[in-house]
Amino acid sequence: MRRPTVNRRRSPACLVALLALLAPSAGVRADEAVPAPAAEAGRAAAAGARVARISFAGVTKLPEAKLLELLQTRPGESFDPEILEQDLRRIEAYYHQNGFPLAYVAAGAGMDRDGVITIPVEEGRIEKLTVSGARRTRRSVILREVGLRPGDVYDTRALTADRQRLYRLGFFNRVAFEPKPGSEPGKAVLNVDVSERQTGAFSGMMGYASTSGFVGYFELSDTNFLGTGQTVYLNWQRGLYTTMDYLSGGGATSRIEARSGFDLGYYTPWLLHRRLSAGL
After folding, report:
1. pLDDT at 39 over 60
2. pLDDT, position 238
3. Mean pLDDT of 198-216
4. Long-range contacts of 268-271 (CB under 8 A, 24+ apart)
5. Is 90 exceeded by the pLDDT of residue 95?
6. Which residue of 64, 86, 145, 225 has the smallest Cβ count within 10 Å?
7. Hey, which bits of 88-199 come out as E strands?
8. How far apart are CA 83 and CA 71, in angstroms?
9. Rounded Cα–Cα distance for residues 121 and 31 (Å)
């Protein structure tokens, strides 16, 4: 007996259109989802065929019980390809509404000779990560703040947390996640596009005293030293201090003298490739 299926072919142009809707932000609205084509195949299913069971393949991010609640197709009822097609659209819409805009139902959804409907889902995975716009900050410094890795499901909720971490570094004026088409449908190249801000600071003041010469201070700091994400600061100062000398017979004398000193500091938020901070 021929297995009745619904037509779920996705053209590359359809996926490109979806990705175009996502850039430059990582969010997507439910009404922006690209609709699936209407069912054409599977109308030759045997009359009166009953659905015995419904199962999913490839579902890892959403509870299958919730997906089953979305279906109008029910075990024990007659198989209807048109109703199943509507069910598949609802599954895709639910994925998109919950932060998985690249997810879609793959080709091959249908019922076998035993009455089992299998719904294969491609949740949309990251093929690789790229970085653009970073002229000073090292690529590794940016990507270590991104929790998603190649092979992970594209999740806009996780990217929201990643964007907040990158902003908290204080290195960037703008952070945007830009998904681009991967080597095949259901895969995306995730580009992290940033606009850097000034992280170095310098301040100083100088004066002159006839009794002790030049006095003042200089302070130099950078919270993204050489693009490594590490903080380095140097402070030098020379000032006038009053020294009291107490006499053994009572009384005291004072004298003014110049003293110099400097401080050197270092801080890193990552130690030994782990999120462990250390400083001096």
Report:
1. no
2. 78
3. 79
4. 268/228, 268/229, 268/230, 268/231, 269/229, 269/230, 270/144, 270/229
5. yes
6. 64
7. 104-105, 110-111, 116-122, 125-132, 172-181, 187-196
8. 9
9. 20
